[in-house]
Amino acid sequence: MSEASSGDFPAPQNDGSFSTLWEELVWRGLIHVSTDATELEKLLDSGQVTFYCGFDPTAPSLHLGNLVQLLVMRRLQLAGHRPLALVGGSTGLIGDPKPTAERTLNDPETVAQWVERLRDQVSRFLDDTGSNKVVLVNNLDWTKDLGAISFLRDIGKYFRVGTMIKKDAVSARLNSEAGISYTEFSYQVLQGLDFLELYRQHGCVLQTGGSDQWGNLTSGVDLIHKAEGADVHALGTPLITNADGTKFGKSEGNAIWLDRELTSPWAMFQFWLNTDDRDVIDRLKVFTFLGKDEITRLEKAVADEPHKREAQRTLALLVTGLVHGEAEARAVEEAAGALFGKDSLASLDPDVFAQALAELPQAQVSAETPVTQALVDSGLCSSLSDARRAIGQGGVSINNHAVSDEAAVVGGAQAPSNEWLLLKRGKKTLASLRLG
């Protein structure tokens, strides 16, 4: 991971105005539950701590919920602590129990491919140099040769069924019609084993994760205490929800992924740009490395001049930059300004332009298609007469070039794309035309 930054992109760093790292984590809203807050604060302030967070390859990409954990890890690493990033080659074959239904098990070849993809994503956010460089680990390394008898005798003997069935996800499934398989029921044992192995191999004494994983996090804490007689810690971050009650990280039912092929940089930027005023300051605290003073200034801007959406624009630029790089973020920001403004589109990055237009309502056209028909086919107008009225009122443009003739045709390709054209009715009603 590179520390280079420029302009609007601050180098990742913790805020030195806080007396301890723990104090900053609390201010940022990143602590929901922990084993012992007082002891953890002392531990993190008294020397290098080896800690880990796990990511299961149950999909081909990480998502925004995982990004919360990656940035917590980075904040700990910036404070001098040593991260172990675990991608679960074995736990990914099982799957953490969902509260509602059994997971579909993916085949080993698919999981192995996803392991490599997730390892690459994780490594982008954590520094791989210095005395506390990130160490990437795979729990398949210590489970692939573990026999059933050894697993039951050496690990299973430390777990009590009464405690296991009280875990939230397990309890929910036991009380549902679906029930729970022994496979998913045993997941918490495997995660506990991960913590034990990392404690033994690397001296790991802290596991971080989402608060919905608390039962799994504490299974490792309990196992190490019973098997090794040692006290270790767990830290759970809060689940992030939107002020309007909707689930964070979802856009029209789809997760916001870190893989650009699943969620384009344009879609990522627009997701953050549309953050509610009530949520934007909390998002800046969690997902950016801006300090307290700057976030406080942006909070005042939200209160005094909400229409300028400075906080949202800052959030969109910085998080897109974290995930996809500064150059891509700036290209997307430029495209957003041009698409919703009157400037020429010719100099825009063709790939970013295509990303943007792929997210809009679309119509397939040829160079000879009447603009009135394109307006109807794209859904910007309800009828041909409505389309003629829109043109007559001077509110229609193609690639920000005004259309004034009701008999005009779409015409051929224009920079920056040989395939896409931007059709606008007014300033904010946009559609894309695909030449074919």
Describe what this molecule looks like in 3D.
- It is a single chain.
- Helix content is 45%, strand content 12%.
- With 436 residues, the chain is α/β, with parallel strands linked by helices.
- The two termini are 42 Å apart.
- The chain has three domains: 31-239, 3-Layer(aba) Sandwich (Rossmann fold); 243-339, Tyrosyl-Transfer RNA Synthetase, CATH 1.10.240.10; 343-436, Structural Genomics Hypothetical 15.5 Kd Protein In mrcA-pckA Intergenic Region, Chain A (Roll).
Shape: elongated
Poorly predicted parts = 2-6
Strand content: 5-15%
CATH class of the largest domain: Alpha Beta
For the largest beta sheet, what order do the strands appear in spatially?
1-6-5-2-3-4
**Main sheet summary:** 6 strands, mixed
The CATH topology of the largest domain is what? Rossmann fold
Helix tally equals 20
Oligomer status: single chain
User: Radius of gyration from the CA trace?
Assistant: 25 Å
In terms of structural class, how would the helical and strand content be classed?
Answer: alpha/beta
Count every beta strand, where a strand is a DSSP E run of 2 or more residues: 13
- The average pLDDT score comes to 94
Q: In percent, how helical is the residue content?
A: 40-55%
What would CATH call the architecture of the largest domain?
3-Layer(aba) Sandwich
CA-to-CA gap between the ends? 42 Å
Quick one: CATH superfamily of the largest domain? Answer: HUPs
- The total tally of domains equals 3
